[in-house]
């Protein structure tokens, strides 16, 4: 039954988004996970500050590194210039369905494979450090590294770590040997980090009457008139134009007299 399901997954046509979201990065592969051009790949493919990303049918675009996994192996994320890119979603949970498939660019040519997740293990790198991987029952070839592992809904649940091995060496029939993939946990942690948008910094409120950076307001000269003649209870000094104050005060005086007359009627 599992073999039949894997075969059906392989035969199903990819949507345009699935196909176009799988990209070339240098000699490896990657996948775009947002419309504004966030692209995931594997850390071992290179932690360069800037890379060239090639979407199918498009000219290569420049991308800047925005995330590197703190583990010895894990996701690396680049942000492409511009926006409006084809993308696929990162899964919110791994789920219990073990059916998976992948696409990548082994040898620079688009390819796909399907099968099942068959467990997990830990790999030791040359430095002696270990890291977790998921094992998948289909093989991959050089150049597939960094390519996405999809669940049956077409969501990203892993990234290609290594080509298939047989007894510690490369297997001549790679498509028949298991391959290792960066875990969903690591992929989701990378996505949760890069997808959070920092809050816009709050601008400090400007206290009333301090909008001007320098100079003495002409209103200072009118404070005696405001207090003694107009009877303003709380005169405020603001950096208004002196000419305006000089021109407006006589009118306000006349208005004040008329207002007093109206109030007495």
Set down the secondary structure blueprint.
Blueprint: H1 2-11, H2 16-21, E1 22-25, E2 28-32, E3 38-42, E4 50-54, E5 61-68, E6 75-80, E7 99-104, E8 111-124, E9 130-136, E10 148-150, E11 156-162, E12 165-166, E13 169-170, E14 179-182, H3 184-194, H4 223-229, H5 242-264
Antiparallel strand pairs: 1-2, 1-4, 2-3, 3-6, 4-5, 5-6, 7-8, 7-10, 8-9, 9-14, 10-11, 11-14, 12-13
CATH class of the largest domain: Mainly Beta
| Alpha-carbon distance between the two ends | 100 Å
Radius of gyration equals 33 Å
The total of helices stands at 5
Secondary structure class reads alpha+beta
How do the SSEs run, as a string of H and E? HHEEEEEEEEEEEEEEHHH
- Content of β-strand: 25-35%
Helix content: 10-25%
Poorly predicted sequence stretches spanning 5 or more consecutive residues: 1-14, 166-170, 199-217, 239-244, 256-265
- The total strand number stands at 14
- Average the pLDDT over all residues and give the rounded result: 77
CATH architecture of the largest domain: Beta Barrel
Query: What name is given to the CATH topology of the largest domain?
Result: Thrombin, subunit H
Order of adjacent strands in the largest pleated sheet: 1-2-3-6-5-4
User: What's the structural domain tally?
Assistant: 2
Mind describing the biggest β-sheet?
6 strands, antiparallel, barrel
The rough form would be described as globular
């Amino acid at each position: 039954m599992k073999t039949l399901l894997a075969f059906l997954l392989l035969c199903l046509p990819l949507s345009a988004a699935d196909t176009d979201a799988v990209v070339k990065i240098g000699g490896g592969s990657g996948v775009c996970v947002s419309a504004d051009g966030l692209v995931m790949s594997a850390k071992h493919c290179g932690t360069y500050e800037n890379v060239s990303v090639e979407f199918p049918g498009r000219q290569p675009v420049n991308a800047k590194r925005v995330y590197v996994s703190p583990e010895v192996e894990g996701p690396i994320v680049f942000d492409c210039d511009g926006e409006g890119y084809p993308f696929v979603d990162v899964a919110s949970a791994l789920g219990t369905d073990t059916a998976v498939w992948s696409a990548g660019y082994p040898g620079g040519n688009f390819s796909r494979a399907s099968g099942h997740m068959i467990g997990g293990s830990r790999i030791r790198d040359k430095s002696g450090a270990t890291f977790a991987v998921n094992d998948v029952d289909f093989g991959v070839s050089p150049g597939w590294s960094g390519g996405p592992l999809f669940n049956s809904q077409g969501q990203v649940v892993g990234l290609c770590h290594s080509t298939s091995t047989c007894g510690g060496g490369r297997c001549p029939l790679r498509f028949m040997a298991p391959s290792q993939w960066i875990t969903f946990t690591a992929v989701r942690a990378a996505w949760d980090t890069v997808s959070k948008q920092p809050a816009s910094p709050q601008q400090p409120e400007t206290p009333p009457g301090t909008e001007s950076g320098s100079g003495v307001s002409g209103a200072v000269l009118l404070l005696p008139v405001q207090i003694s003649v107009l009877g303003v209870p709380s005169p405020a000094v603001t950096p208004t134009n002196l000419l305006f104050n000089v021109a407006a005060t006589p009118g306000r005086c006349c208005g004040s007299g008329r207002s007093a007359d109206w109030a007495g009627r």
